[in-house]
Amino acid sequence: GPEYVRAIAPYQAGKPIAEVAREFGLDEANIVKLASNENPFGVPASSQQAMAAAVADLGRYPDANGFDLKAALAKRYEVPADWITLGNGSNDILEIAAHAFVQKGQAVVYSQYSFAVYALATQGVGARAIVVPAREYGHDLDAMAAAIDADTRLVFIANPNNPTGTFIPAAQIEAFLNKVPANVVVVLDEAYNEFLAPEHQFESAQWARKYPNLLVSRTFSKAYGLAGLRVGFAVAQPALTDLMNRIRQPFNVNSLAQAAAIAALNDKPFLEQGAKNNAAGYAQFVEAFDELGLQYVPSFGNFVLVKVGDDDGAGARINLALLKQGVIVRPVGNYGLPQWLRISIGLPAENAIFIAALKKALA
Ligand code: PMP
């Protein structure tokens, strides 16, 4: 295989519950998983009903162009349907973007401590990664703008960012977009957008009208509770979506996922319940971390990055101590944060189990 493919370090997903149960001799029912920023309420009932109705059609291929889902998204975001690209999760969108806009030898800019798939998508096309040092664990957009060189064709920005939870206000992103050359596509990855408080929300999808090089990426995996179905989407002008459509797999979003996503998109109470739970869970975590004297990065997502020790073995050590107690969180050593752990916000009872386990692990 190509040297640039062999150089890739595989994505490290959260440990599955069944694997932890086997490895540590635990009962699956007693395991709490707060490792993958999933929705603690699971699949919305509305999506479950939509999928049940769609099962009868599974003998047929999915709608290759996702007509109904794109129509629903176009309505929601007030853009023409051909401005939407569907993905097998938003990871697919990120990869399609790299394939559509970057060739071997060109460059991609992203931030230190930003989402792991940016590196994978960059390496996967044999491009050069320009990794810009983070500022206070978040994106340094001034430095990122300055880092764009003649070879750069793509910039990835995560807002809020995973794994650090940092947030960039609208004005800063606009200032950045105004500086970026027209031949550089900016992927604004808003996987955690729906967890933002109303005062932090902005009409990013509408910005695609003003910025022909902007691609806004969203997912149904987080706030909408459909991580296992793999469905995400992008909003951008047709010049960009046309190229992405040439490179994506023809049936990249399956029929059940399309049906479930339409239902979830219209399920406002489910989103509201999730946002409320998230805010309460965040307060629960912060109170515990303050009590324990642990440093954490203020988070705008459904997870918190917390520093569990001063030595580079701390993250792995506390992670193991948590696993032994049946609590799965995410070590972030692969992000260059070996003293930290990332904890997804769960239901109040799950959060409490994690906090009690953390206290034991630190004692
Ligand atoms: N972007 C960010 C910032 C993420 O944290 C994630 C999930 N880990 C994704 C994209 C991809 O999620 P999905 O493929 O499930 O949409």
Automatic annotation (TrEMBL):
Residue numbers of N6-(pyridoxal phosphate)lysine PTMs: K222
Amino-acid biosynthesis as UniProt keyword: yes
E.C. designation(s): 2.6.1.9
Keywords attached to this entry: Amino-acid biosynthesis, Aminotransferase, Histidine biosynthesis, Pyridoxal phosphate, Transferase
A biological process term (GO) from this entry: L-histidine biosynthetic process
Record-annotated membrane-spanning stretches: none
Catalytic activity: L-histidinol phosphate + 2-oxoglutarate = 3-(imidazol-4-yl)-2-oxopropyl phosphate + L-glutamate
InterPro entries tied to this protein: Aminotrans_II_pyridoxalP_BS (IPR001917), Aminotransferase_I/II_large (IPR004839), HisP_aminotrans (IPR005861), HistidinolP_aminotransfase (IPR050106), PyrdxlP-dep_Trfase (IPR015424), PyrdxlP-dep_Trfase_major (IPR015421), PyrdxlP-dep_Trfase_small (IPR015422)
Swiss-Prot/TrEMBL cofactor(s): pyridoxal 5'-phosphate
Superkingdom per UniProt: Bacteria
Enzyme class: transferase
PROSITE patterns xrefs: AA_TRANSFER_CLASS_2
UniProt xrefs under CDD domains: AAT_like
Involved pathway(s): Amino-acid biosynthesis; L-histidine biosynthesis; L-histidine from 5-phospho-alpha-D-ribose 1-diphosphate: step 7/9
Presence of keyword Membrane: no
SUPFAM superfamilies on file: PLP-dependent transferases (SSF53383)
GO molecular function terms listed in the Swiss-Prot or TrEMBL record: histidinol-phosphate transaminase activity; pyridoxal phosphate binding
Domain Aminotransferase class I/classII large as annotated: residue spans: 30-351
Pfam families associated with the record: Aminotran_1_2
Family indicated by similarity: Belongs to the class-II pyridoxal-phosphate-dependent aminotransferase family. Histidinol-phosphate aminotransferase subfamily.
UniProt subunit comment: Homodimer.
Protein's recorded name: Histidinol-phosphate aminotransferase
Species whose genome carries this gene: Massilia violaceinigra
Gene: hisC
